[in-house]
Amino acid sequence: MATIIICSLNKTAQATVRRCYASHLKGLGSAAESHLPFISTCSPSVTGIRWFSRGTGVRFMSHGTGGRSTAGRSIRGALALSGAAAVTAAAAVAGFLANANHFQCAEMATRVSKDVKEKEQEDDILERCRGFMSSPVTDISVLHERKGEMRTRMEMLIMETQADFCKALEKVDGGTFKVDRWERKEGGGGISCVMQDGKVFEKAGVNVSVVFGNLTEEAARQMTSRGKVLKGKDGKLPFCAMGVSSVIHPKNPHIPTVHFNYRYFEIEEEDGTKQWWFGGGTDLTPVYINKEDAFHFHNTLKLACDKHHPQYYPDFKKWCDRYFYIRHRGETRGIGGIFFDDLDSPNQEEVFNFVKSCARTVVPCYLPIVYKHLNDSFTDEEKDWQQVRRGRYVEFNLVYDRGVKFGLATPGSRIESILMSLPLTARWEYMHEPAKGTKEAQMLEVLKNPKEWV
Fold first, then answer.
1. pLDDT confidence of 179, banded at 50, 70, 90?
2. Where along the chain do its domains lie?
3. What is the pTM of this model?
4. Helix axes 150-173, 362-372, angle to 10 degrees
5. Is residue 259 annotated as a catalytic residue, yes or no?
């Protein structure tokens, strides 16, 4: 069934549209004609029309000069059509509106604006949860009660990110993620999605965690060392931490390893005020350098960053190169991406929107690279080099990574989920050094001297 709704027409325009429709509805009989008086009169100050389609339906909605929809208070009825008649009638009205001088502006679009869609989704917690890999960590009724709070909005985002990425990986691999729910007795829990020994991925993990309780002294010291001034009550610091993290280790050495993590942290101080901040990033660790892949990956991230601030990408790209640096080796872990932490300005809403943009790049920045190299052949020597590079990956994660260190310092943390980032296999060769002029030596040169890719 298709629906057409018209408003914001004066009487002359209404009459014209009636005649226009009548000429296109002769084949529908008197039943359809009896519904022709469907046109409502709206404010003459309306200056624009938004057109959008859902399925085979078509709607015209009026918007005042302030951009507020008047459809809710002005539409009086609708004409229901079916099949080609609806399309033909809609085309007739569209043609009329394009030439009508009663409107100063006619804005045409083929879909509901992104902002409207997202608002509708955020209002319907239960509907969004149906698309997740599992029900959220927090009870759905609690999420609904506090759906306007940042804790709820962030949990919904990380659950959505996990589901979108897992489904994209399952499609390319043909395998299925094992969904493993776990609880933390001190408060909270998580959902670990892991796929091992797939056709494409040797080990793929996408983890969501939502934990709360009181910070330990060690965890508090880590934050204080980063410049945080934390004022607890009776030696206690209530906190809530949540995030989505993923590491993908492909079988083929020509498909890079990818990592991303987006998180939110909240601490309640003795006077009841809350400190909050976001962190995260996405980075790529190829075994062999490919300039096209590097450009695609970095450019996708840059476009997401540029929507929010022109300095985000250059600043966070440098931060990423500094952070994912294996100091005892004198080389970066990979070719970087973006990384940021303790981000709490200009305000919570703007930072959340930035994090949301970044989280929604994880599929488009990585999956095209996977598909590109899906059927690349490789040698035993190339596989051995992949194993050596994975050893470096392990070294960084166990020695330097903040997330791993925080997790290990937090009572009740789930070790399996924390160490999910480690590859299924790796290799440590004594005094390994690639021969000069080889592809392996070229890769190592890039890791010792990070480059600008976009």
1. very high
2. 2-108, 116-448
3. 0.71
4. 10
5. yes
Peptide bond between residue 346 and the one before it cis (omega within 30 degrees of 0):
yes
Domain 116-448: give its CATH superfamily: Coproporphyrinogen III oxidase, aerobic (3.40.1500.10)
Residues in contact with 123: Cβ distance below 8 Å, sequence separation at least 6, in sequence order: 147
Predicted pLDDT of residue 114:
58
Torsion-angle region of residue 425: left (phi > 0), alpha (psi -120 to 50) or beta?
Answer: beta
The predicted pLDDT at position 417 comes to 85
CA distance 60 to 40: 12
| Residue type at 314 in one-letter notation | P
Q: pLDDT tens-digit profile of 412-449?
A: 778 888 898 999 999 999 999 999 999 999 999 999 99
Task: Answer yes or no: are the C-beta atoms of 210 and 142 closer than 8 Å.
Answer: no
249 token code pair: 């280790």
State the pLDDT at residue 313: 98
C-alpha 399/C-alpha 387 separation (Å) is: 19
Per residue in 98-125, pLDDT (tens digit) is 443 433 333 434 444 556 555 555 568 9
Which of 63, 249, 254, 259 is labelled catalytic?
259
What are the structure tokens assigned to 422, written together? 């480690």
Amino acid at 268: E
Of the ranges 26-35, 108-117, 220-229, which one carries the lowest mean pLDDT score? 26-35
